[in-house]
Amino acid sequence: MKELDPFVLLAVFQEMLGPLLWPLVALVVLTAVAFVTLLVSERGVRSRRMLLAQAIGLLGGVFALWVMATVSSSGFTDAGGPADWVLIALVCVLGAAGTAILVYTVAGWVGHGRCPLCAVLRPKS
Amino acid sequence: MSTFPTSVLSQRTSGSRRSFLLAGAAGMLATRSVDAASPTKVKTQARIVIVGAGAAGLTAAARLSAALDGARITIIDPRREHFYQPGFTLVAAGIKPMDYVVSRTADYIPPGVELVTDRVAELDVDGKQVLTASGARHPYDFLIVATGMQLEYGLIEGMDAKLIGEHGIGSIYGGPQAAQATWRAMSAFADRGGRGVFLRPATEMKCAGAPLKYTFISEDYLTRRGTRSKSEVIYNSNNKALFSVPIVHEKVRMLFQARGIAVNYERVLKAIDPGRRIATFSTASGVEEQGYDFIHVIPPMRAPEVVRKSPLPWPADKNKAWSDEGWMEVDRATLRHVRYANVFGVGDIAGVPKGKTAASVKWQVPVAVDHIVAELAGGKSNALYNGYTSCPLITRLGQAMLIEFDYQNNLTPSFPGVIAPLEELWVSWVMKTMALKPTYISMLRGRA
Q1: Contact B345, B326 (CB under 8 A)
Q2: Are residues B22 and B134 in the same domain?
Q3: B321 and B239 co-located in one domain
Q4: Of B246, B280, B297, which closes a domain?
Q5: Which of B279, B297, B315 is the last residue before a domain boundary?
Q6: What residues make up the domain containing B317?
Q7: Interface contact A50, partner B, CB < 8 A
Q8: Does residue B313 sit in the same domain as residue B287?
Q9: DSSP 8-state code for residue B73
Q10: Dist CA B282 CA B287 (whole Å)
Q11: Percent of chain B, pLDDT > 90?
């Protein structure tokens, strides 16, 4: 790869995802920020919550593979060479990691009632 | 084959090629596109007429619009719909619905470009003007001819485009409805089994991989529906090869052999009898009749009449076949007409070897536009097209070979060592089904 051009990538993703693109980007960015903030505020990783998040993340990896197979009109026996296994692993890992981070973050903020929305919704005693 | 010096533009092509093929696919990397335009627009009063609003015409309009300030750009086409032709195979394979390949031309017209919905009646290249059926005149300083080609079903005795979908006749090239009708006919054939006859014409043709793809896809459906054992699949090549690139020919020959697909060489479809389901082919020694239960008819292709009747095609003393078919006599490296310096031919109409594909358009149009823009800026472009084209050659549902090559029959893989060009891969199928259309649309908008 000689030069990266994010604008070409952006143009193609815009055509591919249409109105879903920016909400998805927002979800990724918000989750990342919320995750890092949570790690800082809790001064580390809570192992039990992470274990649960990783377990659910596995389902996320499977779901990502299912989505990929569906949108590409593929079956589950179509892998034909090493490049295919790399792509399958990539999709699975990204799906699993993304789901795990999302679950860990949501559980962390909701569980502690720290999110602004939770504070509003929490019944007053 | 001659070789071409490397230009500034062609030096940048490998990275951009990757972006065309893979941008968008599962977070893969994309690289810089070819920028015909400099960051600052060239001020000009030039009149530029583009004939044809297909892939090549629209891409040219987008790039010229982005590069020029003040130019009067007119694009002429009688059809209001735009067809994503690389998707015809997927429609005919039952993978995508018909509306997957249909959109509106007006959606891709850049601001400041005038779309004239009219038929071109004459290319008056000596008078530097284009005349339309309504009687309008469009004088130009530069002309880009992007008319595409004409399907000549009528040159096959007994054949008519209206027969597609009936009597076991399919033809994916005939448009969205034809592709859909072909799917119905092929699916019914796959349910019953029988004899499937496949072929390609003896003329130049668009997407020369499609006849092979559809043979593979049909054979795959027979297998999936359990009727393969009572079926025959026969491929008739017009010449002595299955693909113009020798190494690809050999790979396809091996795959056909492994899949039990019989091959006849030097067979050209001359007549069809839909009632009796008999196709008549010319052979090296005479004629041969082949009965069929399903036949995939690919018609002869040639330049539209308006180009054939203009002074633009190759002269017979230089290239008899291209003269007869009417392809434009353009320089294969610059796409500039050999005799009319202010005329360019891009896309299917260009009389260059190989590659009447969307990938060819991607690489031809920036070169032609670069030459026009440089000339308007008072300079000279050294951009050259090296014949690059690509063919995601579907070999079964879920797998394809990503074949890329150039004028010299070199394989030019964008991802050497990662995506092997002659390997049947799911990742290549994913590119074809997921990433190619968004990238194509981005190309039409001048953004990829």
Answers
A1: no
A2: yes
A3: no
A4: B297
A5: B297
A6: 1-149+303-448
A7: no
A8: no
A9: E
A10: 4
A11: 89
How would DSSP label each residue in B124-182? ETTTTEEEETTS-EEE-SEEEE----EE-GGGSBT--GGGTTSTTEE-GGG-HHHHHHH
Structure tokens at A49: 């919550």
Which residue of A72, A77, A78 is in closest CB contact with B434?
A: A72
What is the pLDDT tens value at each position of chain A, 125 positions in all?
A: 334 578 888 999 999 999 999 999 999 999 999 999 999 999 999 999 999 999 999 999 999 999 999 999 998 788 989 999 999 999 999 999 999 999 999 999 987 655 555 555 555 54
pLDDT score for B14: 46
Are the Cβ atoms of A8 and B33 closer than 8 angstroms?
yes
Nearest CA in chain A to B441: A15
First-to-final CA distance of chain B:
29
pLDDT above 50: residue B23: no
Please list every residue in chain B whose beta carbon sits closer than 8 Å to the beta carbon of residue A14.
438, 442
B211 and B177 part of one domain? yes
Identify the band that residue B256 occupies on the pLDDT scale cut at 50, 70 and 90. very high
State whether A4 and B31 contact (CB < 8 Å): yes
- Within this chain, do residues B288 and B180 fall inside the same structural domain, yes or no? yes
Quickly list DSSP for B21-35: HHTTSTT---BPPP-
B424 token code pair: 């049947």
Query: Quick one: pLDDT at residue B29?
Result: 31
Q: pLDDT confidence of B27, banded at 50, 70, 90?
A: very low
**Token pair 């839909």 in the structure block, residue:** B274
From the number of C-beta atoms within 10 Å of its C-beta (0-12, 13-18, 19+), residue B154 rates as: exposed
Does residue A40 belong to the interface with chain B, where contact is any CB pair within 8 Å?
A: no
Q: What percent of chain B has pLDDT over 70?
A: 91
CATH code for the domain of B346: 3.50.50.60
Q: How many domains in chain B?
A: 2
The pLDDT value recorded for residue B243 is 96
Same domain for B164 and B120 = no
ipTM of model: 0.84
CA dist., res. B240 & res. B299, Å (int): 19
What is the overall mean pLDDT for chain B?
92
Q: Both B307 and B346 in a single domain?
A: yes
Q: Residues B246, B317: one domain? A: no
Per residue in B32-42, pLDDT (tens digit) is 334 444 568 99
Distance, first Cα to last Cα, chain A: 60
